Amino acid sequence: MKKKIWIETLSVLAISIVLAFFVGCEKKEPPQAPTGLNSYVSGSTIKVSWNSVEDADYYHVEYPSDYIWHTETVYGTSFTDYSPDEGTNYYYVSARNEYGYSESRETTCYYSGNNGGGGNGGGGSTTILAPTGVSADVSGSRVCVTWNSVSNASYYKVYRASSSSGSYSVIASSTSNTYYYDASPNTNNYYKVTAVNSSGTESEKSDYAYCYYSSGGGGGGGGGTTVPDAPTGVNAENYGNAMLPDIRISWNSVSNATSYKVYRSTSANGSYSQIGSSTTNTFLSDSNPRQGYNYYKVKAFNNAGGSSYSSYAVYNYDPGSQLSPCPVHYTSHTATSYQITLRWTNPTTYGCGTPTTAYLRVRNPDSGVYADLQTLSGSATSASFSYGMWADSEGYVYCGIITENSAGTSGGLPLVYNWKTNTWYGGNGKQYTEMMEMEELIFSHINQ
Length: 448
Prior knowledge:
The chain is mainly beta. Helix content is about 10%, strand content about 40%. The strands form eight sheets. Strands 26, 27, 29, 30, 31 and 32 form a six-stranded antiparallel β-sheet that branches. Strands 3, 4, 6, 7 and 8 form a five-stranded antiparallel β-sheet that branches. The longest helix has 23 residues, at about 1-25. It is elongated. The N and C termini lie far apart (about 75 Å). The relative contact order is 0.09.
């Protein structure tokens, strides 16, 4: 009888040990990265949504606004930005639980104040931007109207009036091209264009483009007036700065010209599109240049028509070289029993410079002073190091990436890894505690 009880006791003990083993070996991993990210304009806000992630306790939404990284903790699967910036807004979403957090996933959404904007998938946005770069020129017995393509546009409508402030009537109701030939032009023609999306929503009308047409010779006659010569002395300079560019295109006055039009391209021999409206001045400002090389040409106009293109002027708009980098965005970081690997991206949003150098920075556990363990290229996106000697007595390792260029350094918060608990803290501008805020100062201003 005692033997039977002893065997039963051993059996219960064995089962308990097995259960304890499986409970102790339960998989402790961070959740997967969110999928199905979408963002769209809703009134004066931007809505961001994503699919639910299994095992996620909550989510972090990180985004730059007014040149500051913001972090929001979200317990659902959607987030509303009530104060989006003008232009493209960037959102990074990661899933979190007690064992860590996933890689971030990005979505972008363009916001244009009263004009609305479009998200990365277009779903849910009921507004669409008006076309830009509208131009009108005589082409034989017709007038050719051209404009820039609009994102999410299904087709375009072309309107015409006999004066700039007159009543505009539709002359083309559903063209999928970014040009239209007006086969029955008036003498004075003012054109505006709208874009229409797949929901049937029509944008506001564009700025007008003017074209004089003379039936006596395809724009060539008109009381002895001749077509003006092409402008000379075309020049382009930035009268603003990296944050608020003002590329001033200027040229010499042309005899018999009554107005001028300025055109822009990304290459010297590329396709040129008109920027702004016609001007009677001998200069025009481009406040929205493309990053990189901008090539400008000018035409002169009068009642007889337009000149040929001028020679081009070029301006290289490179805000990245004039602004210090923003803090890196950590995409993932992993640790083995002896090595830490950091991975990151360099923000390219408005106000962030392009880094030329990156430093892997690690804190000495004895002195509390950070040292630059590795010097990397500004385009680097990963770095690894053995962390044994850098862990303090409680198991914490403080490390991170600082970038710089000639304009300054990025600053930022370090990442903190505890090898005893396999837990990560900090990074990406998250200021969890007063201690971490102080750590940011030490990390960003190395004192060797």
